[in-house]
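Lab notebook: predicted structure, single chain.

Context: the supervisor wants predicted structures on file for every construct in the current expression panel, including those that have not yet been purified. This is the next one on the list. No modifications to the sequence; it matches the entry in the shared construct table.
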Amino acid sequence: MFLIELQPAFTELTQQPIAFLGGFVSGILRLNLADDPLKSWLEKQGVTTTSYTSTNTSSSNGSAPQSISID
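Prediction complete. Output recorded below exactly as produced.
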């Protein structure tokens, strides 16, 4: 049962071992693909990266939770 869950990872490992291990190592080291040394190297290789930005929830339009005091 445990091997069935790992089958997609083994399939990717056997199809593209260098790309899989590179992604695995960058995930373990928590490397950001949008940082300059890694980004420039990926651009030279012809790989396009998609960067995801988190939205700021504390906006100034008043939609964020506010604290109140009850007398």
